[in-house]
């Protein structure tokens, strides 16, 4: 109960008994019981008022069940559409991957051409002074 062991409950009862005395403890227990009953009664009243308001506005349990059933059916349809198109997604993924590979290869070829051109340009410099790039 509330993560409290038996020894702790006995200690709390002992402290309450020492603080309030043996003649006040039953009165405190009665007051606590009445308060708990009032809280329970108020909670039930609120619950009943909510149910009455829902029934007056046309939201009874059956219509709510139908509404949630329709929403669940729509969610299931969306899942089927998403999961049913996995082959299309796989094809798209493969196409994108192959195109990226081609672009990478093209970039590496252009990079090599640029390096060769830079080396050739350095070799063309004549005279005693070479320029550094």
TrEMBL record:
Localization, UniProt: Membrane
Gene3D superfamilies listed in its UniProt record: 1.20.5.3310
Keywords: Membrane, Protein transport, Translocation, Transmembrane, Transmembrane helix, Transport
Segments crossing the lipid bilayer: 6-22
Pfam families per record: TatA_B_E (PF02416)
Major localization class: membrane
Membrane topology: Single-pass membrane protein
Name of the protein in its database record: Twin-arginine translocase TatA/TatE family subunit
């Amino acid at each position: 109960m509330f993560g409290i062991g038996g020894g702790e409950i006995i200690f709390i009862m002992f402290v309450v008994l020492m603080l309030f005395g043996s003649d006040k403890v039953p009165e405190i227990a009665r007051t606590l019981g009445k308060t708990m009953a009032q809280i329970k009664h108020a909670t039930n009243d609120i619950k009943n008022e909510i149910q009455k308001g829902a029934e007056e506005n046309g939201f009874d349990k059956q219509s709510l069940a139908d509404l949630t059933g329709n929403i669940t059916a729509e969610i299931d349809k969306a899942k089927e559409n998403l999961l049913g198109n996995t082959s299309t997604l796989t094809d798209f993924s493969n196409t994108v991957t192959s195109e990226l590979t081609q672009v990478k290869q093209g970039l590496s070829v252009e990079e090599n051409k640029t390096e060769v051109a830079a080396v050739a340009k350095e070799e063309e410099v004549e005279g005693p002074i070479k320029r550094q790039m």
